[in-house]
Amino acid sequence: MTYLAKPRLLRADAPRNAVGYTRRDYEGAISTLCAGCGHDSISAAVVQACFDLDIEPHRVAKLSGIGCSSKTPDYFLGASHGFNTTHGRMPSVLTGAALANRDLIYLGVSGDGDSASIGIAQFAHAMRRGVNMSYICENNGVYGLTKGQFSATADKGSKSKRGVVNSDTPIDLAALALQLGASYVARSFSGDKEQLIPLIKGALRHRGPAFIDVISPCVTFNNHAGSTKSYDYVREHNEAVNRLDFILPRDKIEASYPPGSLRRIVQHDGSILHLRKLDADYDPSDRVGAMNYLQERQALGEIATGLLYVDSGAEDLHRHLNTVERPLNQLGDAYLCPGSKALEALNASLR
Amino acid sequence: MSQVKSIESSNDFVIKFANVNGSGSASANELFARAIMRMGVPVAPRNIFPSNIQGMPTWYEMRVSAAGWLGRRGGCDLMVAMNPQTWDRDIAEIEPGGYLFYDSTKSLPRSRFREDITVLGIPLTEMCNREYTDARQRQLFKNIMYVGALTALLGIDFGVVEKLIADQYRGKDKLIGANVNALKLGFDHAIANLPCPIGLRVERSNGVGDKIFINGNDACGLGAVYGGATVAAWYPITPSTSVIEAFGSYCRKYRTDPDNGMARYAIVQAEDELASIGMVIGAAWNGSRAFTATSGPGISLMQEFFGLAYFAEVPAVIFDVQRGGPSTGMPTRTQQSDLISCAYASHGDTKHVMLFPEDPYECFTLGAQAFDLADRLQTPVFVLLDLDIGMNDRLCQPFDWDDSRRYDRGKVMTAEMLDSGKNFGRYLDVDGDGIPWRTIPGTHPTKGAFFSRGTTRNAYAKYSEAGTDYTYNMERLRRKLETAKKLVPAPVLQPASQPTRFGAIHYGSTGPAMAEALSLLEARGIHVDALRVRGFPFADEVIEFVADHDEVFVVEQNESGQLRMLLLTEGEIDPKKLIRVLHYDGTPITARFISGRIADALSEHKVTPLRKQVAS
């Protein structure tokens, strides 16, 4: 139904952010997903995060693969360029885009089929390569567009709508991201915007590969008893390790948390992540610890959410390649073409 | 001694080196080829190598041709037999009256030789063992030693080779001395013990002129630098790998910022070919010129993305260095067998732009031009060379560049244009040439953003499954590909010396052999007009050429006649008019083969009307 234009009625007194945009300026076309789909909540969280961060919409490039989740970039940031690529290949297209212009903010949206099955290689290599991006996996454990087949993130023993029990071992993308070198790894739940919005903000301001696994129940095919990705199941088994508050450098820092329960992390751009610790032993700067923690919680049948790991001093692909500061797509002929003199010298060396 | 007269030839013969892969012979053989070139004599070397790093047989074939024929000739006048594994077949390959050069350290029974050839033995191993203690040195200098001996046997100036070594190792004086020493040991031994010079001789000439000596892959890499590519994404595959290596090394030389040493380019070795082409498409979507280099299996893997780039209209440049297919096929042998899988790559109705360089010079020029075409047409452009051009050093005209030339970035709408109120419809045909306008991400705060996708959409890039929107788009794409016909490089006509109703169409690496074949045919009184196709979709001249001749030979290096298929489909030509001349055993096509096939076909042709007369 996206050919229907979204009504642009706007209240004159709608609040504007520091760059002069209203929240509506960050919205996109009307969603064509099922009513109640978790993915729409994630889109709303992206809109809120970008509005709050005063990001100009045209400075964001949003890319996706194929599937329900990958349709969503059409439903937010309508003033941003977007690219709905091929199934499982968003990471490579985004990597190329990021190489061409290091100054834009890159948001990759994918799903569990797109990332954990057909696109697992591209997911893995984008993480290990250090692409500066926010990678959101809208994880519902099921293939929605093709009507309810298990995906590779479906838990063992989980039951499909038709009553089939999944016997394959699930892939934990957050655990993989940690192992592969992502420098910002989080997990959240589409039904928990207080947790999700700050996590998205932190990812957008992070330099390096930021991965957020968002459990996002499929209301049509995976929201029944026996599913481990239903609203009810996730609410019951959600174990948040921390609660994040994202603070821009210009914001006033409020110290309203009890001492010892707060952890302050300054990212490369000066933005601050305030973590309210819910599990006293959890250390989000310890990659190995985070991997162990995830495994332990999983064995207990719990879903650990929150900011699982962050390396605020991480380097990215452009740093590794030592590319010039000016975006490559803005280098003119004179910077690129060596000209006829150089060619004459080269010819002489080839005789 | 033999009854057959020894071959006597100055500046016109074939030498073949039979070596063991990984023994360091390639650089010694190349040195020898360059020495002949420095004598002013055209030489065309070809490396015939296995898919192997060490131990398997490898050959280096060198055609010396005063007339400047650079195609493979076939046959061998002087065999340098350095590989015991292939001895018997190497000996058998020598032309009657030819010459055999070998390492005579270990004596061989007479039965292992032939009576009709001249045998030239030097105890290379023995000499090396005497001179060197280190095993690696013994191996490497053995190669230089035979170069020295051949220098004497063919009457090449010792000073020319000596200078070449000095040029090659400039700044590494120790290496120069050691190499020249080995060279001299071989040279002196041959002078003292063998009948120097033999019947095959290299005499000073001026047949090389200002030509340069380079391989096609290096030239493609250079073309990408001059063409303004800033992003290269790739996955290693023979025989294309050195395209990217060359791009990297030319970039380090020409694209390093002099102020801070930073790179004005990005090269990423991807996890596979799918990711390579994905990165290229992402970079080009975002306004960089980007390319990949691959070969047949990579082309197969990239198919889905080619469809996306075609349909979403994103520029991309793909260098396909073709090898023998299908499947893994013959990874280190040459073929022109990817035309069909490139021309209509991906599912659905597609058609792609292809360029066919003939030699390294055209690898450079068409390689650079590919980026202009991709931006102008907003579609993938395939540069189809093959292993024969890509991996062999070839004499070609020197590279040139017009400094007043500016990159054609095509129809890119700027912020100023959007502000001036220009109507922007991403897939709207405003100019009638089928090419829409595009915007680069980040251009304007409120105007010009669109959502790229592989799904159908209307002219304003909004998702649409309406049949009218779909057909509008498909018809526009067809128009765009019609526009491409006028933009791809024009075919090159080589008319026969007198009017003829026979024509021949060829492309790519077949060029040198074809030119020589035409000359052989002319000598036999057979006149054939030849047209070298350089681009697809075919320019009108290509179809007109077929119409202007009664019969046209289509000369190709694949089994199914892939260019012929394209001609039949695109030109709606009567299949009987197009006669296949196909060479596809993995070796480069020869003038002897082409002229033989054409002459045979034409002699049969002359018989046919007679039979008809009898029957009637």
Question: What composes the largest sheet of chain B?
Answer: 8 strands, mixed
- Domain module tally of chain A: 1
Please identify the top-level CATH class of the largest domain in chain B.
Alpha Beta
Number of H/I helices of chain A: 12
What's the quaternary structure here? heterodimer
CATH fold topology of chain A:
Rossmann fold
Q: State the helix count of chain B.
A: 20
Query: β content of chain A, as a range?
Result: 15-25%
How confident is the prediction overall: mean pLDDT of chain B?
Answer: 95
Structural class of chain B: alpha/beta
CATH class of chain A: Alpha Beta
Mean pLDDT of chain A: 92
Alpha carbon gap, first and last residue of chain A: 65 Å
Main sheet record of chain A? 8 strands, mixed
Give the CA-CA distance, first to last residue of chain B. Answer: 59 Å
From the helix content, strand content and strand pairing of chain A, which structural class follows? alpha/beta
List the helices and strands and how they pair.
The complex is a heterodimer of chains A (351) and B (616).
Chain A: H1 38-52, E1 60-64, H2 68-71, E2 81-84, H3 90-100, E3 105-111, H4 112-118, H5 120-129, E4 133-139, E5 142-143, E6 149-150, H6 173-180, E7 184-189, H7 193-204, E8 209-215, H8 231-237, E9 238-240, E10 242-247, E11 262-266, E12 272-277, H9 287-299, E13 303-310, H10 317-321, H11 333-336, H12 339-349
Parallel strand pairs in A: 1-2, 1-3, 3-4, 4-8, 7-8, 9-13
Antiparallel strand pairs in A: 5-6, 7-13, 10-12, 11-12
Helix pairs in contact in A: 1-7, 3-5, 4-5
Chain B: E1 9-10, E2 12-20, H1 25-38, E3 43-48, E4 57-65, E5 76-81, H2 87-93, E6 94-103, E7 118-122, H3 124-131, H4 135-153, H5 158-168, H6 173-193, E8 200-201, E9 212-215, H7 216-226, E10 231-234, H8 241-254, E11 266-269, H9 273-285, E12 290-294, H10 296-301, H11 303-312, E13 316-324, E14 330-334, H12 339-343, E15 353-355, H13 360-377, E16 380-386, H14 387-390, E17 393-396, H15 415-419, E18 451-453, H16 467-487, E19 492-494, E20 502-507, H17 511-523, E21 529-533, E22 535-536, H18 540-547, E23 551-556, H19 562-571, E24 578-582, H20 591-615
Parallel strand pairs in B: 1-8, 2-5, 5-6, 6-7, 10-11, 10-12, 12-13, 13-16, 15-16, 20-21, 20-23, 23-24
Antiparallel strand pairs in B: 2-4, 3-4, 9-17, 13-14, 15-22, 19-21
